[in-house]
Write a structure and sequence with these properties.
Helix 1 crosses helix 5 and helix 2 crosses helix 4. The longest helix is centred in the middle third of the chain and has 38 residues. The protein folds into two domains: 143 residues, no CATH class; 74 residues, no CATH class. The radius of gyration is 21 Å and the shape is flat. Helices cover 50% and strands 29% of the residues. It is of the alpha+beta class.
Length: 218
């Protein structure tokens, strides 16, 4: 029984690593102002809504605040043609409530996975010493899938020893993806649209895995 519990705890630890990495990226990008600004410019938000760019940017800040606060229904007013109007219709308002609930679920998963990783290391490795540092390293490698969320898309890599390999790369709508290298020495991915480029590069160095990302307008 004790052995089964230890195995379950180790499996949850391994699964918590990619869960923590993925949800942390999602949590970051939800609140990244550049994502909203890019969406407004890339998809013609001003032309489609007849609302000024400044008003849309202000509204995007309020939307990000809504995703983090306890307000049940989003209520954002903007100026359109000299009149103050609601930015979202009733159907969109209801949809955003569902989106907010899912974001909060992602936040809870992120908090649980990070907390579990810390408690596991503190209790099993440092206090009880049931797992050696080598054993801990093997568990980390088993769960070491790194997911990067960029404006132009997302990509995931896995590492083993001093090798790195691309698992997948998915562009956002309006972007194309180019994979210049998929391992094992390094991984290079580029997402490109008519107005923006997102680049991701992962490579092993003498100091470990070096991951860089770059966002630039064209």
């Amino acid at each position: 029984m004790v052995g089964a519990f230890r195995l379950l705890a180790a499996v949850v630890f391994v699964l918590s690593i990619p869960a923590a990495l993925l949800t942390t990226n999602v949590r970051f990008i939800i609140d990244e102002q550049r994502v909203y600004r890019h969406a407004i410019d890339e998809f013609g938000g001003v032309q489609a809504t007849r609302i000024s760019r400044a008003e849309l940017l202000r509204a995007s800040a309020e939307l990000r605040a809504y995703f983090k606060n306890s307000q049940d229904v989003v209520a954002i007013r903007v100026e359109q043609g000299g009149r103050e109007v609601s930015l979202f219709n009733p159907r969109e308002t209801a949809h955003l409530k569902d989106v907010k609930d899912r974001f909060h679920l992602v936040n809870r998963i992120q908090e649980f996975s990070v907390l579990y990783l810390l408690v596991y290391v503190a209790a099993v490795v440092l206090w009880a010493r049931e797992v050696t540092l080598r054993g801990l390293a093997l568990r980390v490698v088993a769960g070491c899938v790194l997911t990067m969320a960029l404006i132009g898309g997302s990509a995931a890599i896995e590492t083993a020893g001093d090798a790195v390999r691309l698992l997948w790369a998915t562009p956002q709508s309006g972007y194309t993806v180019t994979v210049d290298a998929e391992g094992p020495e390094d991984v290079k991915v580029k997402f490109k649209s008519t107005t923006h480029i997102s680049e991701f590069h992962a490579i092993w160095t003498d100091h470990g895995l070096d991951v860089t990302e770059r966002e630039k307008d064209v």
